[in-house]
Amino acid sequence: MRVIKNPYFLLSCLLFWTNQYLEKVKDIYIPYVHAYLDDLLAMPVVLGITLQVFQWIHPQKAKFSFTPVQVLVAWLYFSFLFEFLLPKCSDIYVSDPLDVLMYGLGSLLFYRMINR
């Protein structure tokens, strides 16, 4: 199945977009949703888009999928970048250990439901 037709990928994108719309356009902030939903959905959305591009260009096409190590590296990269490096470089970023957990859960969601 193509990633862009996967219902879990589409739901992740829809939830992410809806949350951004509510926050940026309607100025509506739901406390825990505002704090953690984007972090939970980041990995399914980013890795889903990346996987779809790889499936378009890789010789295996739709049979291509990411290995567990590749998904783990993506989780570690996002966690390091957004929860360690950027908070050290800029005051607009705040480190939150629960964000690392959300990236991890999102990575598991991606690996089990989208990365087929």
Largest sheet: none
Q: How many domains in all?
A: 1
Helix percent band: over 70%
Note the gap between the termini: 8 Å
Q: If you compute it from the alpha carbons, what radius of gyration comes out, rounded to the nearest whole angstrom?
A: 15 Å
Proportion in β-strands: under 5%
- Continuous helix count: 4
Total E-strand runs: 0
Order of helices and strands: HHHH
Shape: globular
Overall structural class, as computed from helix and strand content, comes to mainly alpha
**Quaternary structure classification:** single chain
Output mean pLDDT.
97
How would you describe this structure to a colleague?
This protein is mainly alpha-helical. The protein has one domain. Helices cover 73% and strands 0% of the residues. The chain has 4 helices and no strands. Helix 2 crosses helix 4. The longest helix is centred in the middle third of the chain and has 27 residues. The mean pLDDT is 97.
Give a short summary of the structure.
With 116 residues, the chain is mainly α. It has four helices and no strands.
What's the helix and strand layout?
Blueprint lengths: L6 H18 L6 H27 L10 H22 L7 H18 L2
Helix pairs in contact: 1-2, 2-4, 3-4
